[in-house]
Amino acid sequence: MSLATFIAQLFAGLGLAFVLFFTAAGLNLVWGVLGVMNFAAGSVYMLGAYLTTSAIARLGASALGWTVALFAVPLAVAALGALAEVTLLRRTYREEDENRQFMITLALSYLIAGAIVLVFGTHFRTVSLPGALEGSWSVLGATLPRYTVVTIVLGLLVTAAIWFGLQRTRAGLLTRAAVDDREMLSVLGVDVDRLYSAVFAVGVGLGALGGVLIAPQGAVSSNLETTALVPAFIVVVTGGLGNMTGALAAALAIGILQSFATLRDATLAQLTPYAVMTVVLLARAASARLGWSVAGVRLRRSATARSSAG
Amino acid sequence: MVRSRRALLADGGPTLALLALAALLPALASSEYVLLAASMIVTALVAVSFNLLFGYAGMFSFGQAAFYGLGSYTTVLLMNEAGVGFYLALAGAVAVAALAAAVSGAVLVRMEPVAFVMLTFALGALLEFAAEHSPKLTGGDSGLIANLPSALNVVVEVNGVYYAMLGVAAAVLAGVFVFVRARSGLVLRGIREDALRARTLGVAVERRRLGVFVLAAGVAAVGGGLSVLSTQIVYPDVFDWKISANALIATLLGGVGTFSGPVVGAVGLGLIDFYVGKLTTDTLLVEGLVLLAVILLAPRGIVSLRRKQGAGRRNTQAAGGG
Q1: Chain B, 287-306: which have a CB under 8 Å from a chain A CB?
Q2: If both were cysteines, with which of A44, A198, A241, B285 could A114 make a disulfide (CB 3.0 to 4.6 Å apart)?
Q3: B113-171 pLDDT per residue, tens
Q4: Minimal C-alpha gap between B6 and chain A (Å)
């Protein structure tokens, strides 16, 4: 493999990895804090993509249009998420039944998908990039699509923002505290209800952001829901539930490996997430006794919280 | 466990009534409804499969479609390629699904509940991907047409096909009923309530979980195989997660953890889809609303609506009425 090919595939893989990470990060946030496995993550990703096609259709595929879409779409979806959380999920927290909460997110995914079909129909949509982002740059002989580079830069920025937000801001501190002990947090006078809504909104907004970034890369269709959700689930399980650093590592591994695998066989490459997950799970089981753990940003529910103990 | 005749009747009664009604249906209604009932039979089996895991064993599987699909494809492949008769092909399909469940389950049943949900979901997606990309085996997106003998051709002989499906389904349901009413069912519910306590009582928790996982896969595979009779062609979307989700909705609607719940729910959901389908094509929205309504308003499902919520009754329900 030449250096040029290597660099090109590496960058493509990084682009893929960040889109994966956003949805997985959203899942981890919602899981870590609210204890809900948000099945609607796939449909909000899809919603983000569809809304982007609408936004660009109205604003034009210019740099301005895209900048607006980049901010407006995730914010809009986040607002919808907050609304859903307040009206639907909030009433189930009392019952400590995470299955019911999961089912509510399942129902939400049906509603979102149904709404998309209602508004956009069943035909796929496409969206084009602003002129400045089309084409590619040549780096060390490698052809790097400009859009991929922009995706990676954005990915790095958002990832840094997530890390910074969780580790260095008061909101992040409260979020991490809520993972450990919601009751104590409310005893200390924090409005936990609002915190939960905010976290859910951010988690959903992140998923939508992934959808915005993926929109120009192919056809936007109802398939997006599943094609987003399965790799995201795999990233979350591979990285460890609630483990942000793990999710990033898993997303990078899967994205980059899949990108290189595409050189060999484009179809089989799509099985890369499964392969990586299997290897990691087996390795984890084998080394469980060694007690190693990776330091990093962990949103971990305590071991006593609703485990099956079985 | 309450072995009283009353409890048995409460548990299996609704299913028996529905089966009886189903048997009389061709004489009472047009073939449009017979075909609807045929699809309800299939949905009921997948829902029963889901409920075995979720309602009885406390294992939330979001991938019963994987075994349903395996059942469909294996049945057709055995008939087409091996020239085997339908019933034998169906048995083969059950064996294949059971094997797949045994292999995947060995890993899956040990995972924590959330991972189990996500990975069973991923299993279905994996199989759907495999089916789409193996055109030589499965025909890919063009589907795989079943070579059915004319006696089992739904276009030729709707009632014959219908009674074949009903007969097989009734036999399977009877088997499941015996299983859940016996000690095995009780042990599973014990595991669901408190796995640690069950383990200290000497229950081989992983083995039991794997066992019910395999059993549920077999039931789902029967559903898949029977569906071939009415659809006569198998597409990769037979692995679609919406089939797993429908099983969930049906079970929730009818009553989780009860024997008849999934069956009643499958009938209810089938009726809703049927009549809504006549009014509009927005089935996704309707199903989402139905699910939401059931979760928020009647989380114990239709079957439980008849039971009074007194403390004594609740104990019975928890102890043996499931």
Answers
A1: 287-289, 291-292, 295-296, 299
A2: B285
A3: 888 999 999 999 999 999 999 888 888 888 888 887 766 776 767 888 899 999 999 99
A4: 31
Q: Which of A226, A281, A308 sits opposite B241 (nearest CB)?
A: A226
Q: Cα B288–B290–B292 angle (5° rounding)?
A: 70
Percent of residues, chain A, with pLDDT higher than 70: 92
Q: Which of A50, A98, A104, A105 is nearest to A77 (CA)?
A: A50
Put simply, the answer to whether A236 touches B118 (Cβ < 8 Å) is yes
What is the amino acid identity at position B259?
A: F
pLDDT, one tens digit per residue, over A175-184 is 888 888 878 8
CB contact at 8 A, A36 and A105: yes
- Distance (Å) from the C-alpha of residue A309 to the closest C-alpha of chain B? 6
Kindly list the structural domains of chain A, giving each domain's residue range(s) and its CATH number in brackets, ordered by start.
3-290 (1.10.3470)
> Locate tokens 């009392």: which residue?
A94
Q: Is the dihedral of CA B190, B195, B199, B204 positive or negative?
A: positive
* SS3 assignment, position A18: helix
pTM: 0.87
Q: So what's the ipTM on this one?
A: 0.85
Quote the tokens at residue A141.
């002989």
Nearest to B86, CA basis, from B8, B147, B23: B147
